[in-house]
Design brief:
The protein is mostly beta strands. It has a nine-stranded mixed barrel with strand order 1-7-6-4-3-2-10-9-8. β3 and β4 form a beta hairpin. The longest helix is centred in the first third of the chain and has 4 residues.
């Protein structure tokens, strides 16, 4: 289970963002409206990995949550840069072949790069297979909803997670 791709969700170096707003009167997503420093206050998600290339299907499921946010911040600049600091404790519960294993690790928050906004999308260079939807964007903060799907003939991987960011 240690090879499970779920750890890639913790490495948030580079993303593609699209924006959804539940409030039609909320601010438009622009470099100026996004600029600022946000505290990461929550992170959770799940993933499923399936490999059917052998005689027996190998399916691993994971649920993960974060706690103990230690100076975990994300900063967007009006000039188009995003950086992060801090760490958090991630608890992952893996289930494979009826066996359950729990792992707890301290993870560094790694969201760094240049970004651009195109329509309702925020694109950070060199994406790592994740698409991220910006939800509930307001002057107080936002949610980042991550999704990754990889499907081949004998292999599939699906993951989703949500980060909650509150403006400082």
């Amino acid at each position: 289970m240690k090879n499970f791709k779920i750890l890639s969700l913790a490495i948030l170096s580079l993303f593609i963002f699209s924006c959804e707003s539940d409030d039609d009167n909320g601010p438009a997503l622009t470099n100026a409206s996004l600029a600022g420093t946000y505290n990461v206050t929550a992170f959770s998600g799940n993933a499923t990995e399936s490999d059917t290339s052998g005689n027996t299907p190998d399916i691993t499921e994971a649920d993960f949550t974060a706690s103990n946010f230690n100076n975990a911040t994300v900063t967007f600049t009006e000039s188009g840069l995003v950086t992060s600091t801090g760490s958090y404790t991630q608890t992952s519960i893996y289930t494979e072949d009826g066996m359950t294993e729990t792992e707890t690790n301290v993870e560094d928050l790694e969201i760094n790069g240049a970004f651009t906004i195109s329509g309702n999308s925020l694109i950070i260079t060199n994406t790592d297979g994740f698409s991220v939807t910006v939800r509930n964007f307001s002057s107080n903060g936002l949610e980042l909803y991550l999704q990754e799907t990889e499907i081949d003939t004998d292999y599939s991987y699906e993951a989703e997670a949500t980060y909650t960011l509150v403006r400082q």
